[in-house]
Each structure stands twice: as C-alpha cells, then as structure tokens.
C-alpha cells in the first residue's frame, strides 16, 4: 500500500506528554477496531511546544493502561509545518493550539479542529458516504465540518480540554474521561461503524 493511500490523523496538545498521546492512542484503537489491524490509517501526535524525547506523564500512562492501551514507549515531539501539512485531519485540545497549528501551516485551516469542536460539528454536518476509503473519508469529513462552521455557531465558552499537567490525580482522571467520551462520539464518523472489517466483531469489542 502506498503512502498516498494512508489516512494521516494528527493530534496536537502543548507538550505532547499528556492529552495528545492519550487521545491519539484512543483514536488508534478505534481505527483498528473499526477498520482492522491493517486499516490504512496513521494516528500520531505532537505538541505546539513539544517536549522532545520526554515520556508521557505517569498519570496519563496509568489512564491509558487502565483502558488496555500502552503509552510506555511514547516520546514527545514538536509540531512542525511539514507534519501539519502532511495531515488529512488535525485535532487539537484547545483553541489556542488550533490557532498555533494554522499559523504554522495556513493551508491546514480548513482541516484543523479542537476535539470538542469536531464532535459538535460532525454530529450535525453532512453525512460522509460509508463506502469511502479511509483517507478520502477523513478529507471529506474535514470539508463537511468546515462548511458547517458558519451554520453551527460555537458555545459561549472555549471548546477546550483543560490541561491536567501538574495537577491532581483526579484532574487526570477527569481529563482522560472527557477525551474518551469525545473520541467515542467522533469515531463513527472518522472510521465508520465497523462494517468495513473483513472479520466479524468479537464479544467485548
């Protein structure tokens, strides 16, 4: 399979050691669950002030492990214009990060959303055909969500996920639960309902 056929989904936060690696691991899991292990989707993460080479914080590694996910090998990386320009869809944790991403790569403005914004828009924007290849699906979804922006005004408050870094254990739990809930909301639109898979669903999946 050529690189051009692989859907590229980038998740961005500040340091790339808490929110974005956790969200990316959940999205990766959903992609594999819905499309199979060989589904042509790449999910990766970075930080607008990425802490290069640093491990994910212990509290978020615990949250991931409690959901059957592994962040032990994650290492922080910085967001670059090249990485952004190569992504079909960019998901940020805050509106400030979204602005920073689009400053790095203005061409990505129409395909960059906060996770909360994406969940809100995709639930009410035009349906994306279910038979599209994953990369085309992500691109069409980004286009539909961007077109919906003027018709679906945002709420009064910022569509942000608060940074738990340096806070309490409960803060990490709340952050992880919020991200998980939002990922569940957007995954059917991002990756389909699972009918594309060649093998049947197994109990507990």
Overview in brief:
With 205 residues, the chain is an alpha/beta fold. It is built from 7 helices and 4 strands; from the N terminus they run βαβααβαβααα. α4 (95-104) links the parallel β3 (89-92) and β4 (112-114).
Poorly predicted parts: 196-205
* Largest sheet properties: 4 strands, parallel
- The DSSP helix count reads 7
* Helical coverage, percent range: 40-55%
The tally of strands reads 4
Order of helices and strands: EHEHHEHEHHH
Shape: globular
Radius of gyration based on Cα positions: 16 Å
Describe the overall structure.
- Strand 1 (7-13), helix 1 (19-35) and strand 2 (41-47) form a beta-alpha-beta unit.
- It contains seven helices and four strands.
- Residues 196-205 have low confidence and may be disordered.
- It is an alpha/beta fold and 205 residues long.
- Strands 2-1-3-4 form a four-stranded parallel β-sheet, sandwiched between helices.
Which labels suit this protein?
7 helices, disordered C terminus, single chain, 205 residues, 42% helix, 10% strand, alpha/beta
List the topology elements.
Layout: E1 7-13, H1 19-35, E2 41-47, H2 58-65, H3 81-85, E3 89-92, H4 95-104, E4 112-114, H5 115-122, H6 134-148, H7 169-191
Parallel strand pairs: 1-2, 1-3, 3-4
Helix pairs in contact: 1-2, 1-7, 2-7, 5-7
């Amino acid at each position: 399979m050529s690189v051009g056929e692989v859907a590229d989904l980038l998740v961005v936060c500040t340091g790339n050691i808490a929110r974005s690696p956790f969200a990316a691991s959940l999205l990766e899991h959903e992609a594999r669950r819905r499309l199979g292990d060989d589904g042509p989707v790449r999910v990766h993460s970075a930080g607008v002030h990425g802490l290069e080479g640093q491990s994910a914080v212990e509290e978020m590694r615990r949250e991931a492990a409690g959901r059957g996910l592994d962040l032990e090998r994650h290492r922080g990386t910085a967001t670059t214009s090249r990485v952004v320009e190569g992504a079909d869809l960019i998901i940020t944790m805050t509106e400030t990060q979204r602005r920073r991403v689009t400053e790095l790569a203005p061409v990505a403005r129409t395909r960059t959303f906060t996770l909360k914004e994406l969940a809100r828009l995709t639930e009410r924007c035009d349906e994306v055909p279910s038979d599209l290849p994953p990369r085309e699906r992500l691109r069409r979804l980004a286009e539909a969500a961007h077109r919906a922006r003027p018709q679906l005004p945002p709420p009064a408050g910022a569509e942000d996920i608060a940074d738990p870094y340096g806070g309490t254990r409960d803060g990490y739990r709340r952050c992880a639960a919020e991200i998980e809930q939002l990922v569940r909301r957007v995954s059917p639109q991002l990756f389909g309902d699972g009918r594309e898979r060649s093998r049947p669903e197994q109990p507990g999946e």
